[in-house]
Amino acid sequence: MTLKVLHVASECVPFAKAGGLGDVVGALPKTLAARGHDVRVLLPKYGFVDTAAMVRHAAPLAVPLGDGEAWCALWETRIPGSAVPVYFLEHEALYAGPHLYTPGYDVRDWARFALLSRAGFQLARHLEWVPDVIHGHDWPTGVVGAIHECIEGGAPFEETATVMSLHNVAHQPLFPPPAWKMSQLPERLFRASAFEDHGAMNPFKGAIATADLLVAVSARYAWEITTELGGAGLHELFRARRDDLIGIRNGVDTEIWNPRTDPRLPARYDVEDLSGKMVCKAALQREVGLPIDREIPLLGIICRMTHQKGVDLLLEAAGPILDLGVQLVVLGSGDPAMQRAFEWLGRAYPSQAAAVIGYSEDLAHRIEAGIDYFLMPSRFEPCGLNQMYSQIYGTPPVARRVGGLVDSIVPFPSDEATGFLFDAPTAEALYGAVRQAVELFRHAPHAYRRMQERGMAQDFSWNGAGVVYEQAYLRALARRRAADAPGPALDVSRASG
Ligand code: ADP
Ligand code: GLC
């Protein structure tokens, strides 16, 4: 069966990306389209999106907002290298700024993203194209799940199923109740079993309560969010929706992340011949100002500098780790105190540590290829992409035993090991795993090489996940057909505390 799927999202590579969500929305639709489905994507036209090579639709979209309707222009292009149409919703006042998300989640973000979700419904009408599935991603598209309760949700959408991807349930902005009026959504949706959360409005909670199917970005994460520790206050809701909650691990866009073809690398390589990786290592050492020496273990990390990513654990363990005689390269931005601490580390250990504060896709590729171990001391990690990129690039990860990291790394000392996992979210546990990894690199080069080979041989492509998503969509459609009664059958309030 050919499925018509509309992704509504706040990020999509290569147009707009803040994190892995953008990688996923850039890749999954391509995979599904290659499998014969009719897949399209709707995004906001942020200020930095260049429409020069896009086609503008003659008719604007009118979307309910505020006291009347917001008139939005519509631009169309394709995801590069594919036939997947991408529509950009233009609204000068709401999207023209430089940010994807307003810092601190200003209440205007509610207007921005409620508008986006509902524009998805209007887009389908405008195209006279009724999707089988509308697929939303995290809190910005929370309204997608509620289509059947919105004024737009009658004909022709009665049979359209809604799927909500759960990339990171920890991001739950709360908006003040008056914002509800601005979005012109039915009052009945602002209830404890949907969008209302202790008097405030919680788009993610509303999405989780109303979507036909919930897809966590790894199987482990699908379980973690049903626990008090991992559910970010919504574990009771996830438990209540257990029958509609599945986990599908993200894949890797191997057209972008592939050491055999990667144009961003100074040399290319594959599992048969890793000599190009040594060229990448030397070039990276030169680029970041570290002594060029292939024998020195080179560790690296690329991430948003946040509590989630455990970079503070790395800062705490940095002294002992560097005392092992290794080099460390850091690429990231985020928390200003963490940024300063890494910059200080680079100054204090100029021959061992280098910190690049900022965001660079190009450097990210060169780091993945040039280092010997990739560090991911995440406190929680719904899926994580870098540990998969690194394995493909012959760089075993050293990561915490959590979320998607568990589902994508076979830990040392198994015969099948592709990396290292440690348990406690502590500097000591991270140090212990790094020390083991460094010993393997120094004293068991053949075992290290086999670990690299096993990682490179993993199939992390989207092909497998694409098949599972098809099944998930069919399941969502069956769920929708069974749910004749208006509104979700649920009545679960957010667990307090
Ligand atoms: P998250 O989405 O939680 O940040 P993921 O591992 O899923 O974590 O995805 C992060 C993505 O963002 C990866 O593609 C990673 O390479 C990229 N990334 C994060 N920080 C930077 C940076 N400073 N420069 C370049 N890429 C970055
Ligand atoms: C989120 C998660 C990350 C995941 C990404 C893509 O940003 O933090 O673990 O890989 O979404 O699903």
Key features?
497 residues; alpha/beta; 10-stranded mixed sheet; 6-stranded parallel sheet; 16 helices; binds alpha-D-glucopyranose
What does this protein look like?
With 497 residues, this protein is α/β, with parallel strands linked by helices. It has 16 helices and 18 strands. Strands 1, 2, 3, 4, 5, 6, 7, 8, 11 and 12 form a 10-stranded mixed sheet that branches. Strands 15-14-13-16-17-18 form a 6-stranded parallel sheet, with helices on both faces. The longest helix is centred in the C-terminal third of the chain and has 21 residues, at 462-482. It is globular, with a radius of gyration of 23 Å. It starts with a strand and ends in a 15-residue tail after the last helix. Residues 485-497 have low confidence and may be disordered. Alpha-D-glucopyranose binds at residues 19-21, 24, 167-168, 217, 250, 381-385, 404. The site of adenosine-5'-diphosphate has 17 residues, from helix 1, strand 13, strand 14 and helix 11.
